[in-house]
Design a protein that fits this description.
Blueprint (H helix, E strand, L loop, with lengths): L2 H6 L34 H4 L4 E3 L5 H11 L2 E5 L5 H15 L3 H4 L11 E3 L14 E5 L4 H7 L5 H27 L5 H7 L6 E9 L11 E4 L5 E5 L6 E5 L3 E4 L7 E5 L1 H6 L9 E3 L7 E9 L5 E2 L15 E2 H11 L3 H4 L3
Parallel strand pairs: 1-2
Antiparallel strand pairs: 2-10, 3-4, 4-5, 5-12, 6-11, 7-10, 7-12, 8-9, 8-11, 13-14
Helix pairs in contact: 3-7, 4-7
């Protein structure tokens, strides 16, 4: 078990917060999954999500500006071959297309952090989400064997290769982001070292829904990580909340990946970078699949504001990654306020 898995294991969940709905059998939306409707804006008119070319000589400046103004941006020329992204999406679809009873063989344990199940934020909401997920930390071999006793290696190879490449991209992005804060290479290397990191890959499925306007794919939340890198296929669904504007759609563009600031980067930047509140709504009746990669320092690493000039005071106390996971696991959206000085 990885240290990150152990950190999440401190908060065992009840099974009803882990087991997804049997979406195959759902002919109507059950009351347990009906959410109040809320308006969202098409990003074209109100707010443009910036796209940063990582080969651009101005990438540091562009990434820093995006982190500061929105907490989210899309990247192109990111170095992840599109055929590899396609393979991971294909394997995710292979997993989620299995019969419900079969998927439950890989169910996340109450104190576990990997395997099949609902989003970990489920206990904080009175209504259930129209979502099923599969979490990978390192090798998924134990759960994959349960799903495909004679054909699990392909899934494992694809997931492990993708995690390796996404970790390299995350390190590259973190260097750009931290350079935008005028941190020295020495300070950057304390936060970002190639060997040590806490990472997780989340495969998400938002199944066919008979009435998409009445459900919520993923409830509003911020990510715990330093940053999240998301491939969101071709269907709309991801929305971010911008103060003074409201919910704004982040439309997928071919070949791009979405990058968003998480709580730990918000702390490191001394609140200069907003940890972006986001959600997933269902726009179509058909299934939507996405791949989210979370990157954080090792669980024993202490995060504290780094980007301080002489006139600034730290807004947050130092907190280890595992302690913050513990605080967030109990308090969700109040977590940041509980470590604010």
């Amino acid at each position: 078990m990885s240290p990150l898995s152990e950190a999440y294991g401190d908060h065992p969940l009840d099974l009803h917060h882990i087991i997804p709905l049997d979406f195959e059998s759902a002919r109507t939306v059950p009351d347990s999954h009906v959410w109040p409707t809320s308006q969202s804006l098409e990003s074209d008119d109100q707010l443009s999500i910036p796209t940063v070319d990582l080969m651009d000589p101005e990438a540091v400046k562009l990434v820093g500006h995006a982190c500061e103004t929105l907490g989210v941006f899309q990247v192109i020329n990111h170095g992840i071959p599109l055929d590899i992204i396609g393979e991971v999406e294909s394997e995710a679809r292979r997993l989620f297309s299995l019969p419900t009873g079969h998927k439950l063989k890989a169910l996340r344990s109450p104190g576990g952090a990997t395997g099949y199940g609902l989003a970990r934020i489920s206990p904080f909401f009175s209504k259930k989400m129209w979502h099923e997920g599969f979490t990978v930390m390192g090798s998924p071999v134990d759960h994959a064997r349960e799903l495909w006793p004679n054909d699990y290696q392909r899934f494992c190879d694809v997931m492990e290769d993708y995690q390796k490449k996404m970790k390299e991209l995350a390190i590259n992005l973190m260097h750009l982001i931290l350079k935008s804060l005028d941190l020295s290479e020495e300070e950057i290397s304390k936060v970002v070292s190639p060997g040590d990191a806490s990472t997780a890959l989340q495969l998400n499925s938002y199944p066919f829904c008979p009435d998409p306007s009445r459900v919520m794919g993923l409830a509003p939340h911020t990510d715990t990580s330093l940053l999240t890198i998301l491939h969101q296929s071709t269907l709309n669904g991801l929305e971010i909340f911008k103060d003074g504007v409201g919910w704004v759609l982040v439309s997928p563009t071919n070949g791009s990946l979405v990058v968003n600031v998480g709580d730990l980067l918000h702390i490191l930047s001394n609140a200069q970078f907003p940890s972006v509140l986001h959600r997933v709504v269902l726009k179509e009746k058909e299934q939507r699949v996405s791949l989210a990669f979370f990157y954080s320092p090792p669980t024993d690493f202490h995060v504290s504001p780094l980007a301080l000039n002489p006139a600034q005071v730290p807004l947050y106390r130092s907190v280890s990654v595992s302690e913050y996971i513990h605080i967030k696991g109990k308090n969700l959206e109040k977590a940041l306020s509980l470590i604010r000085i």
